[in-house]
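Hey, I'm writing a tutorial for new members on how sequence and structure tokens pair up, and I'd like a real worked example in the thread rather than a made-up one. If someone can provide the structure for the chain below, I'll link this post from the tutorial.
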Amino acid sequence: MLSQQLIINGGFDIWQRNTTFTPNDDVYGPDRWNILTETNGAWTVARDTDVPAGVGFKYSAKFSNVTLNNQVALVQFIENIDAVKFQGKTVTLSFYAKTVTTEIANLRASILSWTGTADTLTSDVIGTWAQDGTNPTWATNYTAENTATNNALTSSWQRFTITGIALDTASITNLAIIVWVDDGTIAATDDFYITGIMVNEGSVALPYQAKSFYDELKMCQRYYEKSFNYGTAPSDTSTNDTERLLGFSYTTTSIAIRCDYKVPKRVAPAPTYYNNGGGTASTWDYYTNAWQANNALTNDKQLENYFDVVMAGTFTINSGYLVRGQWSASAEL
């Protein structure tokens, strides 16, 4: 058997970016989950502790409608090195879900195959939204491996299983697992909860295969990592004081920074740098005990294991003093 759990973060334990979002369309929220919305800002996604009893989950993802009559989907992409191992296999997709007072009637779910260039995906898999019994038109190069039907929600947790999905599209390069709201009439504040999303090989849904928090986090960090504390959302306003030590000043006008990733990335990402209280992409100077703002960053090297940055400007930093800063790096598909 290839795998008893193809999905990463199916139990929504890992939320590195934040624990609540009101995202635009085609934006990552909980780790490894891309959120698609008909209208930007139409849904709020939040970590929640409402979970099925007796199964062993700690968190679910709560989706709350903000702007009525707008659908939403969550999708996870499987990179080529893992997806091709499932070519020609039969798999089962399962998940737990509920609503509140049957506000949202149905969820639908599907596994899509991508036959375009490996790991160069169209992340918005929905070409045209549909509703109330009609599946979306998928973006070019995507094929649904199962015909999605309604999974009727109630106010109690249920496990839904979609068995016997044959991944038989020729030349699969990637896979996408998607769950979406089928309803077209949705009132503001309608919501649903979801957790325990799982894809296992075979025609029977196996018990949910939980990973340790440590293992799940490391798997997520292959795709996204940050210098901030785990519980701190990356932002320009955070003054989190435990930044990873990055480098040193070698003149009063130049700063050299190197950062080794905790986990090698899927590809070499371009880091995002944060203000943290002083101008653009500030660094902390141990000599003056203050943030030093500077506006010229040159990415000297961007590799899967580390990145180098040279900052040029005029600083009140003496040569040889240590500096630090904040960053995030995304290698998502």
